[in-house]
Amino acid sequence: MTTEVDMSAWHLEPELIRRYVAGAVGPELAASAEAHLMACAACRAALASHVDSGRAATIWADVVDRVDAPRPSLVERALVRLGVSEATARLVAATPTLRGPWLAAITGVLAFAAVAAQSDERWLRMFLVAAPLAPLAGVAVAFTSGLDPTREIGLATPYPGLRLLLIRTTAVLAVTVPVALAAGLALPGPAWLAAVWLLPAAGLTSAALALTGRLRPVLAVGVIAVGWVAVTTPTILEGKTGAFGGGAQLGWLGLAVGGVLWLTAGRHTVMMRLGRNS
Amino acid sequence: MTAVRVVGVTKAFGRTRALESVDFEADRGVTGLLGPNGAGKTTLLRMIATVLAPDEGRLWLLGHDPARARERTEIRHRLGYLPQEAGFHRGFTVFEFVDYVAILKSMTDRRSRHDEVRRVLALTGLKSVSGKRIRALSGGMRRRVGLAQALLGDPELLVLDEPTAGLDPEQRLRFREMVSQAGEGRTVVLSSHQTEDVAALCTRIAVIHQGRTRFVGTPAELIQQADGRVWTDTLRAATALAAWRTGDGTYRNVGQPPDGAELVTPTLEDAYLLLVGGAELEVLA
Predict the structure, then answer these.
(1) What's the complex ipTM?
(2) Ordered structural domains, chain B, with CATH
(3) Is B87 at the interface with chain A, CB within 8 A?
(4) Does residue B280 carry a pLDDT above 50?
């Protein structure tokens, strides 16, 4: 409780009050002025006439909001600390792919592929076919109606489909790529094997996103994934790793960049087909 | 300008024709779509909510054409939608979930968005549970969360698909009160297969059956259609389209009455039964 005392002997100078309100006094002088203000009604009244009431109301409403709004989840707080806006952090937290069961499934499949690769060189090569499918599948899962409980509500909102697609895809890549990389590091071959699928994965994901202007995400991913498996499996089983060679890597990089450029150029005209017929 | 205008809309899913050349209009106030399960109500409401496009025919919503991308976005800014099976992120709290939908509704400023979330939670009586996880709520409370998110941004058009489905009688009454309040000053289109809901809430009704509009008008006009076609008897009448034993032991018969029958005042349910046929009786039972 504040105790009012007789401060008639000394009051803050008008010039000091003006500078204090403008935030132009040093921390020691400010602390001293605040100690006096706590106890002196006359100086508080003098100070009040200098304060912008609109600004004070805004600050107070902000304080109330921060105290009253529920504390965001651990994931959201971590994302905000990394510089992500709190609105985007909430959208990421709602991405179906980032739930435990799906992450467990993808980790399980890649762990199995890594273990199998220890026993046979053909399995080792097949890991390269499987690894890019992890982020691709993650993107599809992020937009599957059965897994996104609020899909129907989301479809009726004006939030830009492309932005939502990119936010969720980034979140999926941020989680699935490290898992696939870790599995790759457990492979018996040379270390570069663990990373050689990264650019193909980026190219395939980018192509799937670009196709989302024409097909639903699940279908777009399906087309790309089936195409990838159908083309690479026979050659890689014969021991040809051309899809991962130096020239091919440049091609994958070009596809990744091209897909992103195409999406960016068409962001105002291309509607993402995030739902059936929508 | 009519808020919702649907002209000659047809929609098929595979070989099933969900809607067949349907015309429909709704303006300020609560308009109800009445019809048995599978009649096509949800298909029509999903089109009005801009999440489904028709195979044929056109829609104008709030003066805009949802077939055009930019106009569709404009409609979505002014639309609230409660789907029949509204899903929730069950790990979110009530506040977090409604805030999530507010973000999708492009409310970017954090503080004004939070103020709006608090406003709709207060409107739907959810203020005291705003910090509770959705998985801990009862079905009735979850339905309220669904209504709360639909009311975000004070939309001009509110689309509610079976808003009272799965609620117990008391919850239904409370929900009706909320929908009735929400209907003041805006256009509400809701669907139901419960005639009591429609009778209690709607100023206009469209009866849909087997993908076609069978009636459009006021509840009084629908009831009028059953005048002289409902009677009570000690027996189930052979000529009745539908008949059931009431609490006082007599049979309420709906159909073509015999001469000298003891006619009674029809209800909305009687008129609805006459319209869609006795086969739907078991749906209502």
Answers:
(1) 0.86
(2) 1-78+157-171+183-218 (3.40.50.300), 87-154 (no CATH), 223-284 (no CATH)
(3) yes
(4) no
